[in-house]
Write a structure and sequence with these properties.
Rossmann fold; six-stranded mixed beta sheet; six-stranded parallel beta sheet; elongated; single chain; 247 residues; alpha/beta; 2 domains
């Protein structure tokens, strides 16, 4: 029986998932399995996709639909409820169940990289979109205090302008970019912070994996910081997706 999996989002010009799963299917001899990219300009196109592709049994979800897709699903797993965002959908008999594997991927990648005394860290999260929700949930679970940084001000965030005018980035030794700034093809973009506040005592994590070293990471590395990109996180969350789809 043909099993079709895929990724929905917009745009999808550079996707890790397609090659990852194609290689996996090849290695495991799963010749009836396919993984495709489905660019949806609007999340309202989801129903049409499901009708056109009756072999679909699993979807990954990326920017900008991780939150807005929730009302369109039949069931929400606890993993997605905890985060408030969905990046994996399991399809069984036309029933859609939403999960979150970003939490698993980010937590395992982060904790393996950080020093043991993480209780001494405070963090800044750049961005407030769907990707930031899993990061927040992981930091809360591991008792790492954090602040959200966004272009717009609200009760739960500080702005980049406020950040540049304060010593918060100097004192926050864990910096995490969850925005698409610097993602290929717009590789010259980066979060607008004061990089002179970063030191060798900082740990700087970028959820972007393409390019492997974003301008954000390069600028942090030039200040002596330890850096990490999002490739391992993606590999871990992809394996979690597969576990969800095949369980």
């Amino acid at each position: 029986m043909a099993n079709l999996y895929g990724l929905i989002g917009y745009p999808l010009s550079h996707s890790f998932s397609k090659k990852y799963f194609e290689d996996k299917f090849l290695e495991q001899g799963l010749s009836e399995h396919r993984y495709e990219l489905f660019e949806l300009k609007n999340i309202s196109e989801l129903n049409g996709l499901l009708e056109e592709q009756p072999d679909l049994v699993g979807l990954n979800v990326t920017i900008p639909y991780k939150e807005v897709i929730i009302p369109l699903l039949d069931h929400i797993d606890e993993s997605a409820k905890k985060v408030g965002a969905v990046n994996v959908i399991k399809i069984e008999e036309k029933t859609l169940t939403g999960y979150n594997s970003d939490y698993f991927g980010f937590e395992n990648s982060l904790l393996k990289w950080l020093p043991q005394n993480i209780n001494k860290l405070t963090s800044l999260i750049f961005g407030t979109g769907g990707a930031s929700k899993a990061v927040e949930a992981v930091l809360i679970a591991n008792k790492i205090p954090y602040k959200l940084v966004s272009r717009t001000k609200n009760n739960n965030t500080i702005t980049y302008k406020e950040l540049r005018a304060s010593p918060i980035a100097t004192d926050s030794k864990l910096l995490i970019n969850t925005t698409p700034l610097g993602m290929s093809p717009t590789v010259d973009a980066y979060p607008d912070i004061d990089y002179s506040q970063i030191s060798k005592n900082h740990f700087v994590f970028d959820l972007i994996y393409n390019p492997q070293e974003t301008r954000f990471l390069k600028k942090a590395r030039s200040q002596g910081a330890q850096i990490k990109n999002g490739l391992e996180m993606l590999q871990l969350q992809a394996e979690k997706s597969w576990e969800i789809w095949t369980s």
